[in-house]
Design brief:
Elements (H helix, E strand, L loop, with lengths): L1 H16 L33 E6 L5 H19 L2 E4 L5 H9 L5 E4 L4 H8 L1 E8 L7 E8 L14 E4 L5 H15 L8 E4 L3 H9 L5 E5 H9 L8 E10 L3 E5 L4 H12 L7 H6 L6 E4 L2 H4 L1 H9 L8
Parallel strand pairs: 1-2, 1-3, 6-7, 6-8
Antiparallel strand pairs: 3-10, 4-10, 4-11, 5-8, 5-9
Helix pairs in contact: 2-8, 3-4, 5-11
Length: about 325
């Protein structure tokens, strides 16, 4: 009995050592050290569905983007040989839960949600939109109505500031860290926070004076201005951050490797010229998909999370 127990614990220790995971949920392994979940080694755990479910981050009205993504998804269908269904998620939480539960196979997660999606849902990001010259990113801006009386960040003290969702980088995590580090300002103590749910809600709230100020992604703001949804002359920017990576596109970790490669191929072979994607995303300067890695491109976001004491505890 004694020998059996010793062998059992030795085997368990070896298995644990063979499955390093860092911040990843206990369901995943990261043997190559790239900070994302490895594909399962057990072939029975790999999935090869007849229909792939795709979801774009719920930055704005998801139904607006069904048509924007239609041509791209038709291209992905040809490349993968699969039927593709657009899933119009209403919140970051719903998108995260869908991938964690295996109901979502390919997705674009917003900047701030990427670390949670990677660590809790097995998301493997590999692409990002970029300009023709390869440059990419957006900035967090704190905006206010031109008649609000707010002309600098300090003027927000004692007033209301709209965030989007707790998982959003530019809509919550980055402004929270910046306001505390650079201005000594904290929610509830120095200003009244609220959560609008989406960037477009925050922007419209600032325009309509529902909020004294709002922290938003300027990529969304620029697209709304280009579409004529808001008038740029009604808003004033009182803070602009460093550049952050944009939405990360990727697949679920347990897709059959051959299928995962086909999904990647679909992104990098898509013809942007004259496409609905080009028409929509050129408003924020994006004209192609470029390859990225979570380890490199999301380092600044992980640093912001650390400054906000964010832990990737998977519930």
């Amino acid at each position: 009995m004694f020998v059996f127990v010793v062998c059992f614990f030795a085997t368990a220790a070896m298995a644990q050592e063979d499955c390093p995971r860092g911040a990843l949920d206990k369901r995943f392994c990261d043997r190559d050290g790239d900070l994302v979940a490895d594909a399962p080694t057990d072939q029975s755990e790999l999935v090869d569905p007849d229909t792939l479910i795709f979801a774009y981050t719920p930055v704005e009205d998801p139904e607006v983007y069904r048509g924007v993504w239609e041509d791209f998804l038709a291209h992905m269908s040809k490349v993968t040989g699969k039927k593709i269904v657009f899933f119009p998620v209403q919140s970051n939480a719903a998108q995260l839960e869908a991938m964690r539960a295996g109901r979502l196979h390919v997705a674009g997660f917003n900047t701030g949600s990427n670390p949670i999606a990677v660590n809790c849902a097995g998301f493997v990001p590999f692409a990002m939109m970029a300009a023709k010259d390869g440059s990419f990113g957006y900035e967090m801006e704190i905006v206010t109505h031109v008649d609000s009386g707010i002309k600098e960040v300090e003027d927000i003290r004692g007033k209301s500031l709209a965030f989007t969702q707790p998982t959003s980088n530019s809509g919550f995590k980055a402004p929270s860290a910046i306001l505390k580090a650079e201005f000594g300002m904290e929610a509830e103590k120095d200003f009244t926070p609220s959560f609008s749910g989406k960037h477009d809600n925050s922007i419209l709230g600032a325009v309509n004076k529902d909020y004294d100020a709002a922290a938003v992604a300027n990529s969304v703001l620029n697209r709304m201005i280009e579409r004529g949804v808001v008038d740029a002359s009604q808003l004033r920017t009182v803070y602009k951050s460093q550049t952050f990576p944009t939405t990360g596109y990727g697949h679920a970790y347990n897709l059959k490797p051959e299928l995962a490669e086909k999904v990647k191929e679909a992104f990098f072979t898509y013809e942007w010229a004259g496409s609905p994607l080009a028409e929509e995303f050129s408003k924020s300067g994006e004209e192609q998909f470029i390859p990225i890695t979570y380890k490199e491109h999301w380092a600044v976001i992980r640093t912001i999370d650390e400054a906000n004491n964010v832990s990737y505890d998977c519930q």
